């Protein structure tokens, strides 16, 4: 009777030996060859762990663990579980919490009269809001909020807002105060999304609104664009359409083309004369008119811009010469296409400062609209038709009295920012910040944004 292991009728299963096992086998073989050449064992038979460790290349501790595991049953490979995604690493801090952090930083300087470190700041933030992240994430968030670390005379790093951010807020507050004193019609515009599955989230609170809702993924989602003032929503300016559709006037998404179409067809015709239009810096609001070429632009783009602006140049010039001319003649401020269009119709455009969504009263209007939609959506499964009906109902229930309350709330915030910014200027100046001439620019600020040291 033949051995089944050598029978030709039996196909041997191929064994795959992984890298670590192959290295271990090589170690054992090398030791055996060496012992044969010396005609002597390297270790005595009594030193089992020493021999096994030398042969396999594993530590005695590892070998002992393997032996204990073998006593419980057959050895097997460790399970290779897929690494779970840590949701805490997804730094998703809404605008309302960002404002809380902004106020906490001011409190350190104005009330406590001390320079905040990341560790102290993190502890203070966790007392006010839910913040499950650590110091490293906080540094990233501060950079995203427009803060950076600068050195004072004693080399101590202090946390300050980028000059461009503080400057933009100061300019905005000065303008909006002037227009309010002149009793002009001020209209705030914005876009939001509604779907058939809304959940509660944090919000600015007052006696009229106790929560804001955030949209979640849904097949039935609406895009809402509107404008409003102290007197309520602007009649005729409402735009409500389904997101994700590929037909219709607005193609299912809000972009610069659709926003300009809305402004042309629905906003401008319904604005009172010489109104003030306030908007944020969303990308589709910020398509530049006569965009200035950068260093990475091609020669043809640079030349085209120079000729368009009546600046003498030729294709025979080197790229560095063309860019030098661009730098000499570029405008001091960016010019946006939608701003120029609105101004051409006799109105004034004001841009909200970065990171300051709380200065837009329409955000409070969105909060009430979504709250009403949520209260009607008991089963969270509205059809698109029903969602539109309830959204229309919610918009009609945001009254002129509501808007006066929203606007009064924002006026208080504007005054608080104005007062605190003045105090912050004086407080920061006492630290005698030593910066180079180039560090105040937007370009260079990113180079010294945030220190990784614990002292920061």
Automatic annotation (TrEMBL):
Q: Which InterPro entries match?
A: RNaseH_sf, Tc1-like_DDE_dom
Listed Pfam families: DDE_3 (PF13358)
Please give the superkingdom of this protein's source. Eukaryota
Q: Where is the Tc1-like transposase DDE domain?
A: 330-378
Q: Which Gene3D superfamilies match?
A: Ribonuclease H-like superfamily/Ribonuclease H
Q: Name one GO molecular function term.
A: nucleic acid binding
Q: Return the protein name.
A: Tc1-like transposase DDE domain-containing protein
Phylogenetic placement of the source organism? Eukaryota, Metazoa, Ecdysozoa, Arthropoda, Hexapoda
């Amino acid at each position: 009777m033949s051995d089944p292991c050598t029978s030709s009728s039996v196909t041997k299963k191929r064994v795959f030996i992984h890298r670590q096992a192959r290295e271990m086998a090589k170690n054992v073989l090398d030791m055996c060859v060496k012992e044969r050449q010396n005609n002597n064992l390297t270790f005595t038979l009594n030193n089992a762990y020493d021999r096994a460790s030398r042969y396999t290349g594993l530590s005695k501790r590892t070998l002992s663990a393997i032996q204990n595991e073998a006593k419980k049953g057959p050895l097997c490979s460790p399970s290779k579980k897929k690494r779970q995604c840590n949701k805490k690493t997804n730094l998703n801090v809404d605008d309302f919490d960002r404002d809380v952090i902004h106020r906490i930083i001011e409190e350190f300087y104005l009330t406590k009269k001390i320079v905040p470190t990341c560790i102290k700041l993190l502890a203070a933030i966790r007392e006010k809001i839910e913040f499950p992240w650590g110091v490293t994430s906080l540094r990233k968030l501060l950079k995203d909020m427009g803060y950076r670390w600068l050195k004072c005379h004693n080399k101590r790093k202090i946390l300050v807002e980028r000059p461009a951010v503080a400057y933009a807020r100061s300019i905005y507050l000065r303008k909006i105060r002037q227009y309010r004193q002149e009793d002009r019609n001020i209209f705030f515009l914005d876009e939001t999304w509604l779907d058939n599955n809304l959940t509660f989230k944090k919000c600015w609170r007052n006696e009229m609104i106790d929560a804001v809702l955030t949209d979640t993924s849904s097949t039935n989602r609406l895009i809402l664009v509107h404008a409003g003032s102290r007197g309520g929503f602007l009649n005729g300016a409402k735009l409500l359409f389904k997101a994700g559709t590929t037909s219709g006037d607005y193609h299912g998404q809000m972009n610069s083309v659709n926003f300009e179409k809305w402004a042309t067809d629905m906003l401008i015709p319904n604005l009172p004369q010489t109104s003030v239009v306030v908007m944020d810096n969303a990308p589709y609001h910020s398509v530049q008119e006569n965009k200035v070429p950068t260093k990475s632009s091609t020669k043809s783009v640079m030349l085209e811009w120079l000729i368009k602006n009546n600046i003498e140049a030729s294709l025979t010039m080197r790229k560095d010469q063309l860019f030098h001319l661009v730098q000499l003649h570029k405008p001091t401020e960016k010019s946006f296409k939608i701003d120029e269009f609105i101004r051409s119709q006799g109105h004034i455009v004001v841009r909200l400062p970065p990171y300051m969504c709380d200065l837009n009263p329409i955000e409070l209007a969105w909060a009430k609209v979504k709250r009403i939609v949520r209260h009607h959506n008991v089963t969270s499964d509205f059809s698109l038709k029903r969602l539109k009906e309830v959204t229309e109902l919610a918009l009609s229930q945001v009254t002129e009295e509501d808007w006066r309350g929203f606007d009064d709330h924002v006026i208080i915030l504007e005054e608080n920012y104005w007062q605190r910014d003045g105090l912050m200027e004086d407080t920061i100046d006492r630290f005698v910040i030593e910066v180079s001439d180039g560090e105040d620019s937007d370009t260079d600020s990113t180079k010294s944004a945030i220190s990784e040291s614990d002292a920061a």
